[in-house]
Design a protein that fits this description.
mainly alpha, DNA-binding, elongated, homodimer, two-stranded antiparallel ribbon, 2 strands, 169 residues
DNA sequence: CGAGACATGTAAGGGGTTACATGATTTA
DNA sequence: TAAATCATGTAACCCCTTACATGTCTCG
């Protein structure tokens, strides 16, 4: 029995969406999907599927020739775990965990910070627009809804930091 | 040379604000300050100051009698590290890391989720109001600004999930 | 005075981050 | 064809989480 982390569910979910995937596939997939609000270093995308396969949540199959890459697909057990997870209420409280906010809290110059953050968030909104524009047909609604949430939050962040820029000082 | 993590800076910052603090002081302090957007398990507040003291960023002094608790205060080295950190631009990109968003992404029932999240966020706004109401005089502006950011984001989240609740389905 | 809640602390294990390393492809 | 970039993978270390554990109040 291993413990299933959020990373585990991301991997399970992506493998299910993809049908079958190598770690590198996952990496590319993440970068244009959950990656926009939940980053995962690529090394995790090698370690985690392997762990999940050892515990029976994924099936692992190694290519015969060439790079002999490992190809993963979801098992019944994996599908079940994923379903139970989505059905269960979200236990953990959401945290902001924004490094910029930490610095603000501990006395960094607000206008300095605000300038950076405004630039970052504007770039991020651009990216979101790109992602929406290039989304493939036939996608389930979840990813798009999550993207909407990302946009909402980015806009809220922009409003906050812009207010700070305007404030006198 | 140890690596300074975000947790390190939180501890340094809080010790500096407090002047002198035991791990338990830090725990209480966190729960009414940074804790509202960046949670830290209390065990970290024992381990991390000890680590920082070993590396010279904090001074550690053990009480003579009684519980023989360890009392920490910041050193010149610690103060310098903290200042450099606040002055440095925030390198890491902000992430949402919201478990509810993950579930949404992977197909959880939006209305189900939305109901929970609306309740959570409303409670959170209540807490923010409490914190603001009971804030001590003479606090530096950083913490209050960070609190404002928390409020902004919570409101944005509320708006998002409420929209989901209203959506037909 | 007994029991529950709060205060205070430590240990172990694993997940994640950072760094390294080596093929394959493009581009100049 | 050299160099730079991308693709693909592995390894080690350490922070962080999840327990466990034992005082010390407080209130009925």
């Amino acid at each position: 029995m291993i413990r299933l982390t959020q990373t585990s569910y991301i991997v399970l979910g992506l493998v299910q969406l993809a049908g079958t995937a190598t770690p590198y596939d996952l990496k590319r997939f993440v970068s244009v999907s959950v990656g926009y609000f939940w980053a995962i270093p690529h090394s995790q995308l090698y370690a985690e599927p392997s762990r999940l396969a050892a515990a029976g949540y994924l099936k692992e199959k190694q290519e015969a020739g060439g790079r002999r890459r490992k190809v993963y697909s979801i098992t019944a057990k994996g599908r079940k775990a994923l379903e139970e997870w989505t059905a269960r209420p979200a236990e953990e409280r959401t945290e902001l965990r924004d490094p910029a906010l930490l610095k603000l809290f501990f006395g960094a110059d607000p206008r300095e910070l605000a300038r950076e953050q405004v630039a970052n968030l504007e770039a991020q909104l651009e990216e979101y627009a790109q992602i929406r524009a290039t989304a493939p047909e036939g996608l389930p609604p979840g990813p798009m809804l999550a993207l909407d949430a990302g946009v909402t939050h980015a806009r809220a962040g922009l409003a906050f930091w812009r207010r700070l820029l305007e404030g006198r000082s």
